[in-house]
Design brief:
It is built from 9 helices and 10 strands. By secondary structure, the protein is of the alpha/beta class. The strands form 2 sheets. It has a 7-stranded parallel sheet with strand order 3-2-1-4-5-6-9, with helices on both faces. It has a 3-stranded mixed sheet with strand order 7-8-10. Helix 6 links the parallel strand 7 and strand 8. The N and C termini lie close together (about 10 Å).
């Protein structure tokens, strides 16, 4: 991280701050001395009732990713944006139409950034599901990393709607960023391990296949928040970063996750008689991120 980076001179926007990642990012950024514009959907206002912050340091905006002018309002005066997509309340589940919704939101947000002269960097939250789903995934050498993209047609064929949506939205954002001259970095996060994680999470479709392929990765909330801030503050960050701090590659790991997700063993989580013994070779790498974060002070 550049030693001259002065957080007190930075105003950043977090969108959507209604989700667990966004809310945690707002809290950590305030602790580091940033001024934060928390952009929330209409249902997120109650989250911030218990947040103690100087009114000059935290400003709440009610923004809709499909309302261009509300995005512009939240971005005004900001030097950076942390963007993560939260599905609309009236369409909470990922299906074949969610890609259109997520792509449209990403397009609006990046276009608004391009029209906001003060924006220096966008940190775009994507997913490891935008990396791992390909026909040739079992034969890739060396390990899969952020240079790889999920195949949209493959995702559509096997109804991997989360991977399809994340891939299309991230590609749309990068294309628009390049066209408009916006400095954008993306974070391809593993499955976020939150207290309310359930078997219904769309990331988990194809969990058994990810496990067998050695690419079933998870990430803790604190580590993911630190990654976002490091990527924003480090002037050398670029492109995509695979972000995870655990891989599910033993039968013990898989069973523990199954117990966390549901009280009964789920058919989507691999089971075996050789409990605790089977080991799947890891075939995914986050070396690029680890190198960036060596000197990061959380």
């Amino acid at each position: 991280m550049a030693p001259s980076f002065d957080v007190t001179s930075h105003t950043v926007c977090v969108m959507d701050a209604s989700g667990q990642l966004g809310f945690s990012l707002v809290q950590r950024l305030l602790q580091r001395g940033y001024t934060v514009h928390a952009s929330i959907q209409k249902y997120g206002e109650d989250l911030f009732n218990g947040v103690s912050a100087d009114s000059d340091k935290l400003k709440i905006f009610r923004s809709d990713p499909f309302d261009y002018h509300s995005i512009i309002d939240a971005l005004r005066g900001c030097s950076g944006l942390f963007y993560s997509f939260e599905p609309p309340l009236d369409q909470p589940n990922y299906d074949e139409y969610m890609a259109d919704v997520e792509v449209r939101a990403a397009h609006n947000v990046l276009e608004a950034c391009a029209q906001t002269e003060t924006i220096d960097k966008v940190v775009f939250t994507s997913s490891a599901t935008a990396v791992v789903w390909r026909e040739d995934r079992k034969t890739i050498e060396p390990d899969m990393d952020e240079i790889h993209w999920s195949d949209v047609n493959f995702c559509r064929k096997f109804k991997l709607w989360h991977g399809m949506s994340k891939t299309l939205a991230e590609k749309t954002a990068f294309a628009l960023a390049m066209d408009r001259g916006v400095n954008m970095v993306s974070i391809n996060a593993g499955l976020l391990m939150t207290h309310d994680l359930s078997i219904k999470h769309p990331y988990l479709r194809g969990a058994a296949e990810m496990y067998e392929d050695g690419v079933f990765v998870t990430v803790d909330l604190g580590f993911l928040v630190d990654t976002h801030i490091c990527v924003y503050e480090d002037v050398s960050s670029y492109g995509r970063y695979l972000c995870f701090n655990h891989i599910i590659n033993t039968q013990d790991d898989a069973v523990q996750l199954a117990h966390k997700l549901t009280t009964t063993a789920s058919s989507s989580i691999p089971q075996s008689d050789d409990y605790g013994k089977r080991f799947i070779e890891q075939k995914i790498s986050n070396k690029k991120l680890n190198k960036l974060m060596v000197d990061f002070e959380a």
